[in-house]
Amino acid sequence: MRAGQSNALETRDLEEVTRACFARIHRAALVLTGNPWDADDLAQETFLVLAGQWRRFQGKSSVYTWLYGILLNLDRRERRRHGMRRRKLKVLWDNEPTRDRVAPSADLPVEVAEWKKSLWAFVAQLPDGQREALVLRFSEGLRYDEIAQVMECPLGTVKSRIFHGLAAVRRLLEADAEAGGESHQPPTLRYGDLTDAV
Fold this sequence. Notes:
Helix content: over 70%
Number of domains: 2
Radius of gyration: 20 Å
Low-confidence stretches: 1-9, 88-93, 97-112, 184-192
CATH architecture of the largest domain: Orthogonal Bundle
Distance between the termini: 54 Å
CATH topology of the largest domain: Rna Polymerase Sigma Factor, Chain: A
CATH superfamily of the largest domain: RNA polymerase sigma factor, region 2, helix turn helix motif
Mean pLDDT: 76
Structural class: mainly alpha
Order of helices and strands: HHHHHHHHH
């Protein structure tokens, strides 16, 4: 097969994978980020990385597993970048001369109301490992061994993160109920498993 034919096949395969997987990856990005704008950016960036690394895919895992790994890495990078930006702004703010000033609202970014009222808003408060394991298990329906592949950790670690993550979500829900928070109904998509687990 000539190089031109090989490139055409790779392009077609990449387009087919994108068509088949984009909606699923976008949903995972939405659950991870909590708002559609960041989810759009994260999902699109995932497929840009895929396009750049497509020749490296060797088929040792499913394409979905590989894509979820890319998605989680990009999400971690963005969270680190966002955290660093907030720390730098805080230093600038603290070093400003004291005078009447108005702080921007902590809720300035527009978030999806349904997401904020769902269990996923509580999952978002967990450490990265627990949060990612719960999203992959209960939002995306991955098996434990697939999650271990995506997260590049032992199967026992995945089970531990899910167990401790569910326990933490239970505690957060109890604390919210004691503080007079709203009753959290499960979202309508595929999140019933998380509700049952909690």
